[in-house]
Write a structure and sequence with these properties.
Elements (H helix, E strand, L loop, with lengths): L14 H17 L4 H30 L1 E4 L2 E5 L6
Antiparallel strand pairs: 1-2
Helix pairs in contact: 1-2
Length: 83
């Protein structure tokens, strides 16, 4: 899907930015005043944003699971490759 100048590349977006963009899309679609072709286009972008957010959450979950606990609490974090 081609992106417009005002739509940043999803792959480079932070979780927070992607979630905010997804919320704006949901608001526009719920308002019901978007032409059909635009609705399809922004719905597709919303699906891509949702997948990006899910991937970011999964990566964060994996990092949290790698926390090494010692007798006095967390000793450090074992980093996980996101590739």
């Amino acid at each position: 899907m081609p992106q417009s100048a005002d739509a940043p590349d999803i792959a480079t977006m932070s979780f927070e930015d992607a979630l905010t963009a997804l919320e704006r899309i949901v608001d526009r679609l719920e308002a019901g005043d978007v032409p059909l072709e635009d609705s399809i286009r922004i719905y597709e972008r919303g699906a891509a944003l949702k997948a990006h957010c899910e991937q970011k959450l999964k990566a964060a979950e994996l990092k949290v699971e790698k926390i090494v606990l010692g007798p006095e609490g967390p000793r450090g974090v074992e980093l996980v490759d996101e590739a």
